[in-house]
């Protein structure tokens, strides 16, 4: 199953992303758990290979619903596939005791927990990690930075920056909508840890 998602990711990325540093970015991804990590601890795609599944789903929604004449295939691939790169090396497997309802016995069960070694925020961390290898255009950086929309912690304090970013950069709105649809409509119920 892993190769299916990874191969699809590579196919899209290598077809559309031609910027300097693209191969180095892929090499770095290979050294992380990006292609095997979950996308969340217990919500959408909280399973092995969930992060790459979610990345592909967001790209698919973004491309199918929001690509218009004048849009860039490269920008859509970079934003859709890499918006959550901040989740690489982010989740760890732990165990907890859960009572088996059938037997009444306590059993150790695996679950995902967060271990954030570089707490730099969410969208901004993805932008930072990508830009270590590939230079993003302003619209791409804004889209990735603000893809969480109102779920972003900095917005809860009343920041108007997100409104300005959405007003100036349509790609940011498109990525946010694609992320919402992938998460809440296409991936609903995909949260089973497998080991």
Descriptors for this entry?
195 residues, mainly alpha, two-stranded antiparallel ribbon, 8 helices, 2 strands, 48% helix, 9% strand, globular
TL;DR of this structure?
The chain is mainly alpha-helical and 195 residues long. Helix content is 48%, strand content 9%.
Describe the structure.
Strand 1 (91-99) and strand 2 (106-114) form a beta hairpin. This protein is globular. Helix 1 (2-16) packs antiparallel against helix 4. The protein has 8 helices and 2 strands; from the N terminus they run ααααββαααα. The protein is 48% helix and 9% strand. The longest helix is centred in the first third of the chain and has 17 residues, at 50-66. The chain has 195 residues and is mainly alpha-helical.
Helix/strand-derived category reads mainly alpha
Shape: globular
How many helices? The count is 8
Strands, total number: 2
Q: Strands across the major sheet, in which order?
A: 1-2
Largest sheet: 2 strands, antiparallel
Q: How far do the termini sit from each other? A: 13 Å
The low-confidence runs, each spanning 5 or more residues with pLDDT under 50, are none
The gyration radius over C-alpha positions equals: 17 Å
Which percent range fits the helix content?
40-55%
Order of helices and strands: HHHHEEHHHH
Average pLDDT confidence is: 89
Taken as a percent bin, the fraction of beta residues is: 5-15%
């Amino acid at each position: 199953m892993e190769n299916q998602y990874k191969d699809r990711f590579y196919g899209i990325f290598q077809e559309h992303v031609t910027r300097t540093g693209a191969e180095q970015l892929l090499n770095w991804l290979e050294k992380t758990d990006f292609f095997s990590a979950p996308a969340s601890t217990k919500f959408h795609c909280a399973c092995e290979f969930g992060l790459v599944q979610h990345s592909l789903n967001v790209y698919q929604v973004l491309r199918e619903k929001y690509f218009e004449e004048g849009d860039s295939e490269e920008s859509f691939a970079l934003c859709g596939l890499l918006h959550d790169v901040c989740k690489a090396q982010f989740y760890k497997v732990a165990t907890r005791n859960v009572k088996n309802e059938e037997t009444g016995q306590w059993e150790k069960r695996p679950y995902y927990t967060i271990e954030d070694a570089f707490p730099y925020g969410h969208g901004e961390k993805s932008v930072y990690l990508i830009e270590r290898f590939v230079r993003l255009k302003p619209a791409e950086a804004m889209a990735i930075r603000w893809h969480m929309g109102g779920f972003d912690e900095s917005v809860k304090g009343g920041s108007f920056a997100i409104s300005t970013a959405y007003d100036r950069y349509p790609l940011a709105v498109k990525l946010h909508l694609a992320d919402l649809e992938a998460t809440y409509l296409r991936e609903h119920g995909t949260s089973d840890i497998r080991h």
